[in-house]
Design a protein that fits this description.
By secondary structure, the protein is α/β, with parallel strands linked by helices. It has helices spanning 20-23, 29-43, 103-119, 136-146, 154-157, 172-177, 194-199, 208-211, 261-270, and strands at residues 2-6, 12-17, 123-126, 163-167, 184-188, 202-206. The chain has a six-stranded mixed β-sheet with strand order 2-1-3-6-4-5. Strand 1 (2-6) and strand 2 form a beta hairpin.
């Protein structure tokens, strides 16, 4: 499939051919939800922390004797049912929320979201985002001109989570220009992940001919691997395996080892 490529002024500058293995996948809600929840859980920072009855100071003495008082039996004043006691089953900052996701699942979820965004008309291909100066005003003017493209009118007017700008390479000037804009984030194409695409509505992809080659997980899903070419395994040759020229090296075969080799040595000794 072919898509139009625009310049920074919002005018057509060419076209790009997209791979169906990346932009032609059907929607898989279960896979996307599993990967997104796992990435968000691994990104979580433990802040809330409560003390259990073992962490609260005091409570070493039994409040009253076990029997004879008519009261309910208690062993410590730091029990969770006491005022000033510990918290039962409260949040702890030592809990591990990391959840592992395979690289293939993460790449497949990324391509599924890209396919859905392309179908919904939320991906804008731009040949270059090189700005004249690293200033916020220049970045705002660039977003205004790009919002003139049909279907991307809210690229500039959307206040929250407007767009992800994927660069083909490292560009400090472009990153500094969009840094003060809260509704836009800048990331390299090779670092794209499902959470970034789900949190923002539009995707502005710079120089798609280069950026699409740097997408993560292409080799894992067999996009660029030719299945028709068999794998060639080369045998490692050591120096001790190479016989010198002009010399004959006598080696015992595996069949001459063991009990057959010992009598030959004894005959040589008897001579």
């Amino acid at each position: 499939m072919e898509q139009t490529v625009y310049d920074i002024k919002g005018k057509k500058s060419g076209s790009v051919t997209l791979n169906d293995n990346i932009f032609g996948l059907p929607w898989n809600a279960d896979l996307v939800a599993q990967v997104a929840n796992s990435l968000a859980s691994s990104k979580r920072k433990n802040i809330a922390h409560t003390k259990s009855r073992a962490d609260v100071r005091g409570g070493g003495k039994k409040p009253w004797q076990q029997k004879g008082t008519g009261r309910a039996r208690h062993g410590s004043t730091r029990s969770p049912i006491w005022v000033g006691g510990g918290v039962a089953h409260g949040p702890r900052n030592d809990k591990n929320y990391d959840r592992s996701v395979s690289k293939k699942m993460k790449a497949k979820a990324l391509y599924t979201i890209l396919s859905r965004k392309l179908k919904d008309g939320e991906i804008l291909f731009v040949d270059s985002l090189a700005l004249s100066a690293p200033k916020t005003k220049v970045a705002i003017d660039a977003l205004k001109t790009l919002s003139t493209v049909g279907g991307f009118e809210r690229l500039f007017t959307k206040k929250n989570n407007s767009a992800v700008i994927a660069l083909s390479g490292k560009s400090k000037e472009t990153e500094r220009s969009f840094k003060n804009l809260g509704n836009v984030t800048v990331i390299e194409a090779r670092n794209l992940h499902p959470l970034a695409l789900l949190n923002y509505k539009y995707l502005v992809l710079e120089n798609p001919n280069i950026s699409l080659k740097d997408l993560p997980g292409k080799m894992l899903l067999g996009d660029e691997r030719k299945k028709s070419e068999p794998k060639i395994r080369t045998k490692r040759v050591l120096d001790r395996d190479v016989e010198p020229m002009g010399k004959q090296v006598s080696r015992r075969s595996s069949s001459t080892r063991g009990s057959k080799a010992k009598p030959a040595l004894k005959k040589q000794r008897t001579k």
